[in-house]
Description:
Blueprint: E1 11-12, E2 25-28, H1 32-44, E3 50-53, E4 60-61, E5 80-82, H2 84-91, E6 94-96, E7 100-105, E8 110-115, E9 118-123, E10 126-129, E11 133-135, H3 154-164, E12 181-185, H4 189-200, E13 204-209, H5 221-234, E14 237-240, E15 244-249, E16 255-259, E17 264-267, E18 269-272, E19 276-278, H6 281-285, E20 294-296, E21 307-309, E22 314-316, H7 327-341, E23 355-357, E24 364-367, E25 375-379, E26 387-392, E27 397-403, H8 410-415
Helix pairs in contact: 1-7
Amino acid sequence: MTMEPRTPVPVTSAQPAAEVVVAPLVVIGAGLAGWTTVREFRKLDTATPVVVVTADSGDFYAKPSLSNAMAQKRAPHQMVTTPAAKMAETLNVTLLAFSTVQAIETKSRTLTLRSPHGVQTLRFGRLVLATGAQPIRAPLQGKAAERVRSVNSLDDFALFHKELQGASAAPGQDGLPKPQTVLVIGAGLIGCEFANDLVLGGHSVQVVDPSTRPLASLLPEQAGLQLKDALQALGVHWHFGTTVRTVDEAPDGRLDVSLANGSVLRVDTVLSAIGLRAQTDLASAAGIACERGIVVDAQLQTSVDGVYALGDGAQYASAGARTLPFVMPIMGAAKALAATLAGTPTDLVFPLMPVSIKTPALPIVVCAPHPQTAGGWVADGSGETGAWRFLDDQGVQRGFVLTGKSGARRMELAQETVLQAAP
């Protein structure tokens, strides 16, 4: 089943845009960061007008669930937990859906928008950038390179899901869509989650990565090899130590993918999952300081007074100038920012934030140290116990990894880990 087409009209709450006469708080982006900020703000301030601008429908969904939906047989429309209109009504906001911000004028505090109704100017009192991140795309050659997919939004997932339903292929003897052969580019966190999900969904999965094992930059070697074996036992076929060079259409309409090691793979779909890059184009064009992300201070303010940022697009001072594209940082940042916006300046302090990797073949919990921390991974016992600690040069535990049943030790190792904002 696929998503029904939507009529591209703005969705508004009971407070129409025409009645917003006081410069409102404007939030750009209706993902988890944008909506959570508004929800937390409304707990503290029910009067200030709020406008949310988004290029999509504004429907609320859990983005992490995009990489474990296939095994659960969930269609795209089933991923929406709260429709946009309900979000706007509940939070008393004006939602400008299907609207793209073309420019930010920080001196005049105005935005230039393009919506289904044309180009318009919108004033703001304070501005929150929740513009997220965009998939990194490898520079692939070949006449079918444009058929390589990335999944970073519900709309992306709907397109990918449609292809997996075999829209261009005849159904099998049972009348159901044939399982597809999917090539995943990248054996990082997202690539491994999709590989596990797709194979559980009945598809044939191959993974290409230049490293020697999955999650090579995140996990100690033994843990990575455990994951490699677990996914391989499910049927995932690995191609390590090589990269994709070209993608061309095969005579039967499928895809021929040429690897740097000389292999040619015939597949139905190619999914690129080589990472995310903070979306900074809009902020940078407005003269807002950007590095790996939109630079924000401890109170999430950018280099421009009254303009804030959070989410996958922000580079947090509170995290040692890191971007943190995970759910827990967003929830903490939204709560702190809401307090600041409501009149109580609040520094963002991140707690210890272990991440659960959604690979049911081998559940993994990882609490990574700051990437500039000098030190190394040390196994508990032989490593077969599924527990590793990251010790810095002074022998202080700065992170940990747990695999399989050892995930039950999460609280134990978390209590023994010493937080470090920056080395």
